[in-house]
Amino acid sequence: MFAAMSASDSDEELYNERTALVPSENPAVPSYIPDLDHSPTEDSHSKAVICLRTRPGGGGGLDQEAELEEEEEELSLKYGAKHVIMLFVPVTLCMVVVVTTIKSIGFYSEKTTQRITVCISKYRSIPGLFSASCIVREVFKTYNLAVDYLTVAMIIWNFGAVGMVCIHWKGPLQLQQAYLIVISALMALVFIKYLPEWSTWSILFLFTLPSCLAADLVAVLSPKGPLRMLVETAQERNEPIFPALIYSSAMMWTVTMANPSDAQHSDTGQPSHLRNVPFICSLVDDDDDDDNDDVSTGGVKLGLGDFIFYSVLVGKAAATGGDWNTTLACFVAILIGLCLTLLLLAIFKKALPALPISITFGLIFYFSTDFLVQPFMDSLANHQFYI
Amino acid sequence: MNLERLPNEEKLSLCRKYYLGGFALLPFLWLVNVVWFFKEAFVKPPFTEQTLIKTYVKRSALGLSFWVAVLTTWITIYQHYRSQWGEVGDRLSFTIPLGTP
User: Fold this and answer.
1) With an 8 Å Cβ cutoff, is A118 touching chain B?
2) What's the average pLDDT block by block, 10 residues per block, for chain A (387 residues)?
């Protein structure tokens, strides 16, 4: 789900931005006025949202505003393209991790339900480590290695504790990104393994439904939205938005520092670096929101929900399709969808739901490849006819 | 989190917290500390807090190598003698490989 947050200069002093956010099944919230103080509500959202913010820095005098805005628009488009590429890498990485795990560990192609109950009963007390330890065990079983409890305990303890420190407190950016990718991959693997076949496909299909689309568009374009309030609140407080749920790419300090007009707006209390930088932020379903005292970073932010569902689609294709053609087709489809949505976003600077677009393409490609292209390729190979 | 942005005192405080945190059986934290603060401690031109940061990085590296040694020793012993330990070996095992050792 994409939503564009673009700021306008309607108030001279206050930095005003329109944020488009999408809650799909959430109760209505009291009307939200961006200029005044508002009380934040924290709902859980069952929709993944990506907001693209292409707001350049504040303008100077009225005369120069038009020119400045044009320049800034170009700037933002340029950065928008760069950040698209920056998103491709983590999304690709996540999908690659999921697909390799599925292909190498037979666990994921089996349809036994026994393992679920065994695993669940053993690790019920440690939900976060449950999937990690299950997967670790399956990895070791695949390679027929003996591992003792002590080593495994050390591995999982270190992995978990450093992850907590890195994501919820302070840590190097690359490590944070790596952890988020790994966690998304783990979640996707859990979805793929433990949801019955048709549930997964129907959940994915739900994202493409026109009703969802309409609901998202309405929610996104209206000024009342819990997600928007959350983002605004987080920005007002100089907090990053749900650090555990957002993947953040590089920061663009040099751009913001170079812009002198930022000095005027710096007293609004909002982080100046957020304003010159186009960033895509996405908010995800599950979990709690973590309020964090860190200064939010600029750059591109993408929500984990998107990672997870893209990876679920590709992983499902790898697990059930059994053929690389299908997997690759899904992968390409998702990237095309991502690219298209970001492009549309940069052009219109409006809220657009993006997850449906990628998932739609993915599903179309998957089923068409599976039912049309695959038999075609097989019979071609059978008849030794090379194109 | 970008180290460039932080004032030196905060860098020192961060390094110190990572160093202290590693004592909770977290050699990985020490590894992160070493890699992350290596440039600050050894490559950058000297600043006031650099000596302390250097100490922490060095100690983290020390702790890390200690843990690596311990774990390597234990894993070697375990892999080598597991089959001979019989039942104890099995109880210690998280996964038991199939086939004859």
Assistant:
1) no
2) 41 39 39 38 38 41 61 58 78 89 70 48 48 74 82 89 88 88 85 78 74 59 54 59 60 31 35 30 32 40 77 84 79 88 72 72 86 80 79
Select the residue of B25, B35, B97 nearest A157 (Cβ to Cβ): B25
Domain ranges of chain B: 7-82
Instruction: Report how far residue A354's alpha carbon sits from residue A360's, in angstroms, rounded to the nearest whole number.
Output: 10
SS3 content of chain B, % helix, strand, coil (to 5): 75, 5, 20
Predicted complex ipTM exceeds 0.95: no
Asked if residues A352 and A344 have their Cβ atoms less than 8 Å apart, the reply is yes
Chain B hits for A251, Cβ within 8 Å: 2
Residues 6+ away with beta carbon under 8 Å from A7: A15, A16, A17, A18, A53, A55, A275
Cα A103 to chain centroid, rounded:
24
